[in-house]
TrEMBL record, chains A, B:
Stored Gene3D superfamilies: Hotdog Thioesterase
Transmembrane region(s): none
Record-linked PANTHER family: OLEOYL-ACYL CARRIER PROTEIN THIOESTERASE 1, CHLOROPLASTIC
Key words, A-Z: Fatty acid biosynthesis, Fatty acid metabolism, Hydrolase, Lipid biosynthesis, Lipid metabolism, Transit peptide
Start and end residues of each Acyl-ACP thioesterase N-terminal hotdog domain: 14-129
Domain Acyl-ACP thioesterase-like C-terminal span(s) in chain numbering: 161-235
Superkingdom of this protein's organism: Bacteria
Source organism (scientific name): Candidatus Avibacteroides avistercoris
Protein's recorded name: Acyl-[acyl-carrier-protein] thioesterase
GO MF terms, alphabetically ordered: acyl carrier activity; fatty acyl-[ACP] hydrolase activity
Pfam assignment, any one: Acyl-ACP_TE
Family to which this protein belongs: Belongs to the acyl-ACP thioesterase family.
Length: 249, 249
């Protein structure tokens, strides 16, 4: 872990064999896992990590994640993830990422939106007032030239797949973990999309938690050329778990 | 990566948040992934890694994996995996592992059996004749006090779950990856097994590859107190993909 400057964290990775898909490229789910880990490392090193917050009975919650890749690294490739805080709002913060190849060229960017909530009442808190607003000291305008998350609406989607939540889906909070939704969304597409093209932009907005035994329906609607809006619902369609967007290119 | 001696490789890890299950312990699937990576690192550093073999049109195939844990490390815990070659037979090699906590105490052991095959004809080759039999130089009798894999037979199993193979299951060889079977087997058990107990011993023997679109049936049969034999079949039960054993304790 080297620091580009005090505000930007940079973390090194290598594409492990079981983290590559059938094309030999890193999977988006594993990249997502790395991004969230980097968020955690970066925040921890600067005094606003989840451990520090938990002591004060607050915690971080991921609200949105957008990843846009020009190229995914291949099996055994080394790559780095840079992360930084772009903005702090009253109830949200924008954290961005740059994914770079070993030779330094940009492979892609990502954006995430986080809320801070009370551990007991699960209600959003004003993060500028928590922990002496320390997070404000690290805001930087390092460039992240991809679109911010958009509002995703589905009008007449089709039911693509159904997944019953299993043991392997559940994290330490008792919820389906944020990364598993990425897999469940991508698994709703025919494998030919990944053969002839690759995921160019992926977007997910988390709405409601889901739990062991829930049945998740994955709904898909076309939204342009090789672009799709996605919604995962539970309780027979009564509640939305998350919405997403996938563009292949 | 430090070496205990020239024959034993030792590799450090940390339990990442998304690699822990709902109890906060490392998942067996992620541990399995680490073990296979360590095998790969160890072999590569000693001149019989998959890259070297591929140049000669041979490759490694995992045949069996057994993991027996006293205790799984928890979220954010550091731990190490040691690996070494216990024996080289004509067509197989036994590679063992010790999993240790940061303070050095043993958390568990694992055993794996590998074959070497020709990349073109997929037939087993005599590994003592490949690459000047270099692997023979690294055999060591470092202790691994857990039972070797046993022959698993099911007499009257019940169908526990069915899983249709998706994009996320498939690795660079176009097969369902070895680690995913661990998840599919564990996901066939009710979550209460993981709440009240933990997996004490897990065994898997790989028989036939499965592919995108295959439907995998997971069959389970009791084999003692909180112990189960498992078989994954495809093609409507016509062919066995793998067999396993899971003991909770």
């Amino acid at each position: 872990m080297t620091e580009i400057n005090d505000r930007i964290g940079s973390y090194g990775f290598m594409v492990e064999p079981f983290h590559a898909d059938f094309t030999g490229r890193l999977t988006l789910a594993v990249l997502g896992n790395h991004l969230l880990n980097c968020a955690s490392f970066h925040a921890k090193d600067r005094g606003f990590g989840i451990g520090t917050l938990n002591q004060q009975h607050y915690t971080w919650v991921l609200s949105r994640l957008v990843v846009e890749m020009e190229e995914m690294p291949s099996e055994y490739d080394k790559f780095t993830v840079e992360t930084w805080v772009e903005a702090v709002y009253r109830l949200f913060t924008d954290r961005n990422y740059r994914i770079a190849a070993a030779d330094g060229r940009t492979l892609g960017y990502a954006r995430s939106v986080w809320a801070m909530i009370g551990m007991d009442d699960r209600k959003p808190v004003e993060m500028t007032k928590v922990n002496d607003g320390r997070i404000m000291d690290y805001v930087t305008d390092y460039p992240c030239p991809i679109d911010k998350p958009a509002r995703i609406k589905l009008a007449a989607p089709r039911l693509a797949t159904t997944h019953r939540v299993t043991y392997s889906d559940i994290d330490i909070n008792g919820h389906v973990n944020s990364i598993r939704y990425i897999e469940h969304i991508l698994d709703a597409f025919d494998i030919s999309y990944f053969k002839d093209t690759a995921v160019k932009r992926f977007e997910i907005a988390y709405v409601t938690e889901s739990y062991y035994g829930d049945t998740l329906d994955v709904w898909i609607e076309e939204a342009g050329d090789k672009a799709f809006n996605v919604e995962i619902k539970k309780d027979g369609g009564k509640s939305t778990v998350c919405r997403g967007h996938v563009s292949f290119g």
